[in-house]
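Task card 7
Instruction: Convert sequence to structure tokens.
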Amino acid sequence: MAGNPADQGRDFDRSPENLKAILRKTFRLKEFRDNQLEAINATFEEKYVFVVGDNGAGKSLCYQLPACLSAGVTVVISPLISLIQDQIQKLTELGIEARTLSGDKGCSDADSIYQQLSEEDPIIKLLYVTPEKVRMSDPLIEALQSLRVRGLLARFVIDEAQCISQWGDNFRPDYGTLNELQQDFPGVPIIAVSGPIAPHIQEDILKRLQMTKPQVFTMSFNPTNLKYAVKTRTLDRGTDCITWIKEHYPHDSGIVYCWRQDDCDNMADSLNKAGLLACSYHAGKTGEYRESVQNRWKENKCQVICATIAFGMGIHKPDVRYVIHSVLPKSMERYQRETGRAGRDGNVSHCILFYNYKDYEDLRYVISRVSCSI
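Output:
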């Protein structure tokens, strides 16, 4: 890779001692986890970096800490608005300047951000955008090119990189074009971050992003406080979930995953009728509604989120006592990521999978339909 001019004229102390001091003072963490410091150092060396790890393993720190010690702006490309909002809220609480140019930003908010990006020394350290925004917004592309020319585009981060391969081009087509960043912004380092993936998917992601000779860092996080169980489901999904929640966690926070948007709405209705304060969350809701639901859940004003995969994969809420899958998940990797949302405070939490043979028949039907369309 060509050298990135982002750090020219700026002298940052990147010694292990100072990195650890920032870890404690800014991020309020005591120690680096396995491979975090190594990934951070590789990012500073402007190499291609690929970080793979479970939920809660500390992948985000591998680019958030370098952003604090780099001249200019780190641009994070993320697929889910809910995940972006959660990250920005957390960074703001830590005193780190983070902004987003998501699609629901008003003109005045966007103009303010663009003005800050044009400054000689932008105060924004992390700018979160969707893949569609970074590929289709002329004002954003112009702002990023200006940052690059001025040596203030520190790096690109491709978050949730498993979406590039695992979910296919139909999920978010613009994810498949992110390899063009290297041609459009030559010399700017790239770090990709992914949840747990199989080796062949990792190879596919690196190939699609055209990341040659990357340094790959794997982070494991095996919480012993999570208790897994598979239970036979009756034909009434709502009744099973209600019975289990009321028996084990009638007043605690949890998540119920569903396949379809209608399933989320119906599940939330059933839970509410049973006296459990539940909200539905899926891509069919407006951005304003989803943000409101997310905030209510984090503030414990909503007990249960009934969600599809549209609910951000990395949202941090420490006291999630249970994650229920009302139907069979579509992959083990997805199941691992979604159940990893429970028990981040270290206390005992449960991951319940309700299974019925009809789930298998439904999945087989979906696979057959996809195969016929290829």
